Amino acid sequence: MDTSWRRTFRELRGQFADGAEERLLAIDRALDRLKENPEDSKSLAEVRLRFHGLSGTGATFGFPRVSVLGAEGEHATEAVQEAHRAPALEEIVAWRRLVEEVREEFRADAAPAPEIPAGPAKPAGAARTIEVLVACDDAEFRGALAAHLEREGMTVTVARNFEDTEARIAKRVPEALVVDMRFDGGRGGALVEKLRGMAEGEGAAAFVVGAPVGFVDKVEAIRCGADSYFEQPIDWELFTRRLRQLLERSKAEPPRILSVEDDPDQAAFVKAVLEAAGHVVRICPDPTRFEAEAIAFEPDLVLMDINLPGLSGHDLARFLRQNEKYAAVPVVFLTAEGRAQSRIDTIRAGGDDHLVKPVAPVLLLSTVAARIERASFLKSLLGRDGLTGLLNHTAFLEGARATLLRQGRTPGKGASFILIDLDLFKAVNDRHGHPVGDRVLAALGALLRRRLRGSDLVGRLGGEEFAVILADLTEEEAERLMNRLLEEFSVIGHHGLDKSTFHVTFSAGISTLSPGMTVDAWRQAADDALYAAKSAGRNRVVRAARPGAAG
Fold first, then answer.
1. Left if phi > 0, otherwise alpha if psi is -120 to 50, otherwise beta: which for 188?
2. For site-directed labelling of 422, which of 25, 224, 404, 468 has its Cα 20 to 30 A away?
3. Angle at 490 between CA 496 and CA 485, to 5 degrees
4. CA dist., res. 430 & res. 428, Å (int)
């Protein structure tokens, strides 16, 4: 296990133990007030909340008996509250005994840190061509696969047999593995299991291909750890689209987790566990700040406690779900509330999962990772153009607005909005037909994906119009880059149904973001520059005039 995590856990556990007496004294003071005035409902609520905190946090830091005693006190005080009566003197005395038992537990010996898996490996160095390892005896299939993936800027490496594939995986985990179930005597599925058993193998894309089979056989193929099963003959568009989606998850920025947790010890534990796995975590201890934190942080997942001061976590989840912007953001409840009614309330509030404290780090991480991956996959389906795999119109403009906000906060070299339009594309469709035209569109989309950075926004706005946002490049750098892309695209040979070869060019307009510019104005300036490029004869890149420039 990672020694830094052990050290962090010991520090957190020490802080929890050091602060225990202050927590217990707070319960003592509330019990003193109850003894003087049993009708003091505010003090009764405080005792219950304090016991609730011990119940949820004790076992997290290696004090399981503290959690048991805290739960006993929480349930006892809750029963009095729900009965709408004042506690009897003997009940107050019993709660004091629980507090003393908790004090004894904090004198226990230190417990070892729970196991926590290592975070996902981070790619090092410059970007390189993605290599797809193929374990398949069918030469025709391998040739077709290589042809389709070459368009996506990938290369295919062929394994000779089971042992050769094993050796290659052991030497370097591939970004993607494509396996025929019949490979080398029907041992293809075992190769996927081998991949998934390696330290970094969970992050790789794994596809199984094979002849048409029954449903149970497909499920067995997925059970071995594959992401998808494809029957032959392959639907190549679907195959490459799904592969792109899986590969893009490894290029994404670290997931952002917003944890709504008022208990500082529990918050510190959650933050340490998730950050050790590579997540970016922000703690929201005050539920009244939830909306502001969600807007500023833009979380990929919300981790929510239920019992919060003044507000319920279920109320916050319902508030989140009424905003369509957060409709697909996973909400995972992490709470000491384990009763069936609480779980039902979680479902009704729009929660995606309900974890009960204390939670093992490996369960917390697995739940968070699975929910984020699922949400990311659904978001990619909703936000991607089906033909090119680029951002669709809505997703691109959302990204443009986010870029504008980031530039306002931390301006760099600048940002350029580029509109690209294929020249005389209607003539391509009229002469060669729409299927050929679609291949031309897909070819431009593939070129943009290959040549632009993962941080650049690239989208298809509709028809033959594409858009790019380049951040942290000067206007001159953006123009040089687009001219290189224009030249490279113009020499690509496209093939008609009659086997003829033809070439297509594009025109582009560039607008550099200026202070105070809106997204609509930014786009309009790029559109005006694109119109100028078309009017000047097409097949060229034109920069928009600067605001206020003489014209």
1. alpha
2. 404
3. 130
4. 6
